Amino acid sequence: MDTAFTVKTSLTALLSYFNEVAQVAGDYYAGERDIYKRDHLAWILVNWQVLITRFPAYRERLHLVTVAHAIDRFYAYRSFYVKDTSGNTIAEGKSRWVLMDFSAKRATEAKEDMWALYGVERGTPAFDVELPYPLKTEHFRVTYRAMPSDIDIYNHVNNVVYARWICDALEPDVRNGRQMKEFRILYKKEIYNDEEVFLLSQIDADNELRTRHIFRDAHGVNLAYASTKWELEG
Predict the structure, then answer these.
(1) Which residue of 8, 9, 68, 94 could cross-link 13, Cys pair, CB 3.0 to 4.6 Å?
(2) Cβ atoms of 196 and 218 closer than 8 Å
(3) Under 8 Å CB-to-CB from 206, ≥6 apart: which residues?
(4) Chain segment 96-137, per-residue pLDDT in tens
(5) Under 8 Å between Cβ of 2 and 69
(6) What are phi and psi of 150, to 5 degrees?
């Protein structure tokens, strides 16, 4: 079930939809899996910027769209749209991905056939995926430990789990009649199974409420940065 006590879709469900449609799109392209398996390559998510007009309601029918926008050397840019039955966009995501060579364990440049594979024209300028607002003051922290159910096919914590941890840390006080309108996150370093993670958070409340976050490991290394924006529900 993708809805919580609000009977509306959660942020984690939206991100899961985006991940799923990205996988479906990847599988659609003829020969893609052979190319990536042959060269031990994979596109790894670097950052999200998600804008939310409203969250879908329970049993609402949705249309999900993803568009490969640009490839710029090491990076690919892909947009996502959630539309209602009237064709209105109710949520959208902008994302940046880096091409990883798992044999060499480093980023690598896009291969010659990838532009044609994804239907992207060479020279198309990349769009901006705005970075999270930086944390300036730690108001509180929460400790998490990565569990086996958090791990993806690359053997590290799935990108959606970070959003779940943030939402768990903020609920229910931050919600309090508000709806999340924007989510930004930048992934810097992988989190592995059984790893202890500290979520440092700052909450700024004015006309709108904004939260700022850093994920940090036990050695003080910053693993990811994130921020959210909330507005009173109308």
Answers:
(1) 9
(2) yes
(3) none
(4) 999 999 888 899 999 888 898 888 999 999 999 999 999 999
(5) no
(6) -85, -10
> If one looks up domain 11-118 in CATH, what number appears?
3.10.129.10
Rounded Cα gap, residues 6 and 179, in angstroms: 11
The CA-atom distances, in angstroms, between 113 and each of 29, 30, 79, 102 are: 12, 12, 21, 19
Cis before 134 (ω within 30): no
What's the CATH number for 140-232? 3.10.129.10
pLDDT tens readout for residues 8-45:
889 999 999 999 998 887 665 545 556 666 678 889 99
User: Is residue 74 helix, strand or coil?
Assistant: coil
User: How crowded is the C-beta side of 172, counted as CA atoms within 13 Å?
Assistant: 5
Question: 42, exposed or middle or buried, with CB in 10 Å at 0-12, 13-18, 19+?
Answer: middle
Tokens representing 96? 């940046």
Encoded amino acid at 57, one letter: A
Domain with CATH 3.10.129.10 in the chain: 11-118, 140-232
Q: What is the pTM of this model?
A: 0.92
Q: Mean pLDDT for the chain?
A: 90
Cα distance between residue 94 and residue 109, in whole Å: 21
